[in-house]
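Continuing the batch. This is chain 6 of the set; chains 1 through 5 are on the previous pages. Same settings as before, nothing changed between runs. Recording input and output for traceability.
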Amino acid sequence: MRVAFLVAPEGVERVELTEPWQAVGEAGGERVLISTEPGEVQAFDHLDKADTFPVDLTVSEASVADYDGLVLPGGVANPDALRTDAGAVAFVKSFFDAGKPVAAICHAPWTLVEADVERDRTLTSWPSLQTDLRNAGATWVDEQVQVCTSGPNTLITSRNPGDLKAFNATFVPEFGG
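Output for chain 6:
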């Protein structure tokens, strides 16, 4: 299992990156940190700067063919920055086009809206995104984990860091772990 983790250079919620990252590693999977810029990404604990993490590849260097699935961690600033980057949006969309599973937590579905891959899908997110998701054609539910198989791929979503245990237990097996 080889899993892509896509984050912006700044703003990813630390725990929403590190806990899924650890879950993939514990399942014996390979993890690749992808961002829109080389170097390091700055994670946050809510609004406070936390750790930095080295970028393995930029989106311009990455190919969906090399991965079994995509994880989109949240954080308010992270998906907002990703959805303004055409390369990041195209990379996300390519997983849907290829029929490969995607797991998104908290605010991460904002990037899905920009990629126009949530239409006619059922998902959950941080509650403040529900209007955006509904306006984009999705059905929003308030569930710890939502697995949607009604599209070209499996889409797994969760609401917040409190859902991480269930999120990880759901997406890792779906990705082949």
